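Notes from the 1:1 (GR / supervisor)

We went over the backlog. Supervisor wanted to see one worked example end to end before approving the batch request, so GR pasted a single chain during the call. The sequence is below; no edits were made to it. Supervisor asked that the structure be written out right there so they could see what the output format looks like.
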Amino acid sequence: MAEAEEQETESLEESTDESEEEESEEEPKLKYERLSNGVTEILQKDAASCMTVHDKFLALGTHYGKVYLLDVQGNITQKFDVSPVKINQISLDESGEHMGVCSEDGKVQVFGLYSGEEFHETFDCPIKIIAVHPHFVRSSCKQFVTGGKKLLLFERSWMSRWKSSVLHEGEGNIRSVKWRGHLIAWANNMGVKIFDIISKQRITNVPRDDISLRPDMYPCSLCWKDSVTLIIGWGTSVKICSVKERHASEMRDLPSRYVEIVSQFETEFYISGLAPLCDQLVVLSYVKEVSEKTEREYCARPRLDIIQPLSETCEEISSDALTVRGFQENECRDYHLEYSEGESLFYIVSPRDVVVAKERDQDDHIDWLLEKKKYEEALMAAEISQRNIKRHKILDIGLAYINHLVAKGEYDIAARKCQKILGKNAALWEYEVYKFKEIGQLKAISPYLPRGDPVLKPLIYEMILHEFLESDYEGFATLIREWPGNLYNNSVIVQAVRDHLKKDSQNKTLLKTLAELYTYDKNYGNALEIYLTLRHKDVFQLIHKHNLFSSIKDKIVLLMDFDSEKAVDMLLDNEDKISIKKVVEELEDRPELQHVYLHKLFKRDHHKGQRYHEKQISLYAEYDRPNLLPFLRDSTHCPLEKALEICQQRNFVEETVYLLSRMGNSRSALKMIMEELHDVDKAIEFAKEQDDGELWEDLILYSIDKPPFITGLLNNIGTHVDPILLIHRIKEGMEIPNLRDSLVKILQDYNLQILLREGCKKILVADSLSLLKKMHRTQMKGVLVDEENICESCLSPILPSDAAKPFSVVVFHCRHMFHKECLPVPSMNSPAQFCNICSAKHRGPGSAILEMKK
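Structure output shown during the call:
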């Protein structure tokens, strides 16, 4: 029996989930648990009949007339034997210091829990309801109401006596009452009334909708959302009423307040209790269902729904079926819903059970996500609310997520999540790596291992490298490239690679990886040798990075064979480490590579390799003739005789022509152009470059019996030689192609020359005239002569100190000034005077412009 009771006291959520045929994917809004401890003991021998809730404690009434005060865990703190029969209702004031109790035998008690004041009365009929004033603790508010066949208001007078007054009667038993502020709401067989205790007026009457239901079996549920909003639930109908102040102009004989129904809607089941939850409603419903087998009605589990009221309907937010003890035997009137406003706690009371519903917190939300295996969402929720969660740790959720992914076989995702979840915890990283090793998935976690902060034990990295080395050379090479060399024991991995190369000595991937490992180990010589063998592009980077120039002095040919361009650039950039002489010597047996090196050296600096220019003539002639002529033109150090000899041997006409002209043998060069190349245009161009009349004469003599050459000369000679000289020498009767066009061109060129000369003459005359006028205007201007000027000959002031004395001054256009007596006497042949200073400096003598006398 005890074991059965323990099972019953488990979480109500678990019981509900077990009995559901299909699990909903929608997360519940509330969580449930049974009120145990003292409540369990009470309900084993008795049955709950009513309950009221205060923020500090609970008050539970039973069918055997007992009232128990309980703490929020359900432990009994006080017990009152009120009556031998059922307790119908318990009421507490807001302070929790006064309690009112009524029972089925007509007893009414109102007493202070911490004071001696009491009210005892026994009526001749069952008293169904009682409500004490919310501020009963105040002396001015010593009021309470009771209800049986009529609603009575009890007030304590100034003599400490209680007087009663009837507020309402004649409409059957009063079965529900709620007091909030100055308003009392109650329900009888006909409907709901609201009474204003201040104005002593009844404000409204809200009639019952479904009169077919027995009011004793389906009682009305009332609750105040606030001081002016009343929620009424009766049968399947819900009404939300708002108490409003009436405008003064509408008063007349009407109450000062009126009630407006702001929302009204129907529910699917019978209402046993109501409670507000922010702008939503919590509804406890009594459910009857029809058995598919017997087709008879039976009492199903009650439901607790959260609904969103609208003006004429409602929206269901959540709905939970509750497994309470003895629900098969309960009626609608046996259920009650009480709530604690301060903590959003809801108490579902039935004869054999008390269940507490709470709003789910973030921990509960995470619990639900984990239960539904939504680990990623749970992890995100925990990270967002990490300050608010109490029962969960982000790390624990993350580890559970990793285990879940591994169990599903999603190894790559699990490994990727390790980065975020494990963070910098090296111990956890190592633990997870061993887990991945056990399931043969080390490769999956390898890309995500930490490489800096934290750093794991070298054994971890070596274990993964060995895994790749056994099955995936490319993956092994990738890890070696990506992982810093200090993560693992380099010598261990080098030895492992060597062992594998014994089986496959030509494997390029392993060789390249071994070279990288040698580099990490600073064994650059071995690394360089492997790179050169593989002709790997990183060889140049390795040489530069680690300054391995001393190691490559005997490997220059290998480097040039691999990539001559990069090799030459590297050698030229580091002449101070490998001299030009050394490179040329190393390439002596490979003249084609020698040429590449010397050619690029010459391009960089025409003078650095001057000692090799003679050698380069042969190299250019053999391997790169197109660049021979530019080399001959740019080099000032190559021997011309040697070059001419080589070019003549190989019959290089253009190069020979250039060398002959450079050596001063222009006539031989021109003859070679005419006889070897037969190119009149090139001959004419050559004659133009040399600008030698004898060359033009030779060219005319050679061309005089060759009509095509004559045409070329006629078209190009006009600006250098008088065309008449050529025309006079043309034999009569010789047919010359395009002669007319050539003559027209000569005439046009002549006319153009004449026009150019005339144009230049006009411009020159105009400029000369303009400058002459400008000079004349300048010379006509006066010249200031004052005490500061000196004679350029005697260097004394130009003006005498005594202005009365006669003096004579000569001022030239160049602004030099002299005393007349300081100038030489002009001769008879040249009477004009000139400035001695300007004449001496060869700047042209300035003539005198002014002679001052006094």
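Supervisor's comment: Confidence is low (pLDDT under 50) at residues 1-23.
Batch request approved.
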